[in-house]
Amino acid sequence: MRVAIRVAIIVPVSPFEPAEMIKRSVLDLKNLNSSDFDCKFLYVIDVRNDMDERPKIPLKMGMDVLVRKHSRGKRAGAINDAISHLKNFSPDYVAIFDVDSEPARDFLVNAIRSLESADNAYIASSPRRISNPINLCSETIEVEYALINFLLKKSGFKQFNGLIGVLRWDILKKYRIDERFITEDAEFATRMHSLGYKALFVRDSWIREQAPLDWKDLYFQRKRWYFGGLQLWNYFNQVKKSSDIRFKISWLLSLTLTYFISLFLPLILLSPPLLLAKYGRRKLKITLGLLIHALVLQAAAFSSLADFLRGRGVEWKPQKRLVE
Question: What is the arithmetic mean of pLDDT over 174-203?
Answer without folding.
Answer: 97
